[in-house]
Amino acid sequence: MKNKLVYTFTLLTFLTPAFLLSSCSDFLKEEDKDKVIPRTMEQFESMLHREGFLDVTWFYKSEFMTDDVEENTPVVTTAKNRYKGMYTWQYDIERTGEGDFADGNNDVWGKLYNDILVANYILERLADIVDADTKASRKAQLEGEAHYLRALAYLELVNVYAEPYDPATASSMPGIPLREGTGITSQYRRNTVAEVYAQVEADLLAAIQRFDQSAQQPSLWHPNKKAALLLLSRTYLYMNEWQKAVSTASDLITLCPQGLYAMNRNLTSSVVRLGNPELLHTWGEIAGTLVDNVMEGVQSEIPKIYRVETSFSTAAYGVSSDLLSRYSPNDVRPLLYFHASDGMMVTAKWHPQFTQLGGHSLRLSEAYLNRAEANAALGNADAALADMATLLSKRIDGDYASLLPASHDPLEVRRFVLDQRRLELCFENQRWFDLRRSQSWYPKQVMHVFSYSASASGTMGTVNQTEVYTLRPGSPNYTIELPLAETVVNPNIEPYGKREQIVGVKQDK
Questions:
Q1: Over 90: is that where the pLDDT of 135 sits?
Q2: Which of the listed residues 33, 279, 350, 493 has the most CB atoms within 10 Å of its CB?
Q3: What is the distance between the alpha carbons of residues 415 and 421, in angstroms, rounded to a whole number?
Q4: DSSP notation for 330-341
């Protein structure tokens, strides 16, 4: 039997090291005919991509908390309960509508710290790769990818479990723990938000340096210098480092002379595909999102987390009417971003209609949005509007200039850019973070309706009652509490402790 790589990740808690080794030499031994411990460059590369870049489920669960998602009203209540805690911003999002344990919060924490441990393991053991000396270019690429993966994971974590970056308080504001290696540590503490962002910046700068040192030209499945520059520009945007955001986004745009993809001229082609010059990096296994029975190849048109578990064709949650109403009639993006299923629109961003490659991607359009928002924050409204005109010229079939704001007031322009971020990047794990960080200059009240529906049989029922939940501007519930399992195992880690109970206002039908 051909040997296969087996990577055993024993997570005693979500912060416990993934690799429990008795010694380095023991770890490098071949344990049996079916298990090979990573030793070569190829094996380490495979480990990084199998364990770090395939699972993207979390990147879509954050959408439940945004104004881009709404329930399918007549779907029976039991089919919608699984994500009710997230959808209604409950104090304890780890409970379903029936009070059972929900996996969303643990999935986020566990998956992202697992990615960090994978990256740390590789960075710690670069010198131990047996054929590294003959493959220096591949080693630089591998090291760059590990730094990139760790930066992405920390950036996600700090924007889920800590308050948004504020230059005035970031040095004292509790963030999330930084794991510097794979050794076992009995006590963890929250590093400050500033320390976490400093680590993200350092990792991305290191990734860019290593990618420059590598002569590799890997496929789009691998992160690269362009992807690292985009993530760095996003990081600076979150930090209110406006000039750095502008400069970094500009460096990336300069590296992409073909410019933006003319979506309005390619309505019959998937956006995420080979040949699209705007695509910088793609990752994630679509099959795990759509396929229920891998052996039989049964596939649904609806992502698993949004659909009724007992039906392949019925969505429990879908695209909000509010989001759909924000697109102008001649905007082509809805044709590629969404599709109808039993009367409700659902996201197509992990569907062949949108992607022929991975379930998640980075595209050049975000660089224009990052630069435009940063320029608006600097007061450079004309420069911001120029970038927005460039983007809309590729997304609107016909007159796009009339969609630009008449006012050149920097605040109004910045708000316009954020609205366009929503339309361009919806269902790409961006909206929740954008809502969080914009509360001081673009406060928004988000309302979700949850309906109680019953049926003698089937997935559709009669609505008996509805509850309206409201996430007020500046609510502390924009920050998620740490998973209960982590605080139990590690009682010295400080809980967030500020979330409030949001009660639904009942409306009888």
A1: no
A2: 350
A3: 10
A4: TB-HHHHHEEEE
Q: Give the residue from 112, 234, 106 showing the smallest Cα distance to 165.
A: 234
List 281's β-bridge partners, or say none: 362
pLDDT tens digits for range 407-417: 999 999 999 99
Residue with tokens 């099959």: 287
Q: What is the helix (H) or strand (E) element at residue 387, kind and residue range?
A: helix 381-392
Using only C-alpha atoms, the chain has a radius of gyration, in whole angstroms, of 23
Range list of H helices, 220-364:
225-238, 242-254, 287-290, 321-325, 333-337
H/E element, 383: helix 381-392
pLDDT at position 1: 32
3-class DSSP state of 71: strand
Please write the tens of the pLDDT for every residue from 438-494: 999 999 999 999 999 987 678 888 898 999 999 999 999 999 999 888 888 888 888
The tokens describing 288, both together, are 């795990």
- Output the six-digit token pair for 186: 């009995």
The amino acid that residue 346 corresponds to is V
**CA 222/CA 484 separation, integer angstroms:** 34
Least confident interval from 147-151, 176-180, 192-196, 441-445:
176-180
The Cα 381–Cα 364 span in angstroms is: 21
Residue 205: burial class (beta carbons within 10 Å; 0-12, 13-18, 19+): middle
Contact of 106 with 15, CB cutoff 8 Å: no
pLDDT of residue 21: 28
Q: From 52, 85, 55, 161, select the one nearest 497 (Cα to Cα).
A: 161
Q: Is 448 helix (H, G, I), strand (E, B) or coil?
A: strand
Measure the CA–CA gap between 28 and 125, rounded to whole angstroms: 11
128: which DSSP letter?
Answer: G
* Residue pair 11/109 in contact by the 8 Å Cβ criterion: no
CB-neighbour burial class of residue 265 (10 A; exposed 0-12, middle 13-18, buried 19+): exposed
Cite the DSSP H helix spans in 76-192.
77-80, 84-87, 104-124, 136-161
Q: Has residue 433 got a pLDDT over 90?
A: yes
- With CA atoms as reference, report the closest residue to 177 among 169, 167, 187: 187
Which residues in 266-289 are b (16+ Cβ under 10 Å) and which e? beeebbbbeebebbbbbbbbbeeb
SS3 (DSSP) at 506: strand
Q: How many Å separate Cα 480 from the centre of its chain?
A: 15
Can you give the pLDDT at residue 403? 97
pLDDT, average across residues 119-134:
89
Torsion angle, alpha carbons of 165, 170, 175, 181, to 10: 110
CA pair distance 501, 89, nearest whole angstrom: 8
Helices within 125-267 (DSSP H only)? 136-161, 193-213, 225-238, 242-254
Rounded CA separation 38/9 (Å) = 13
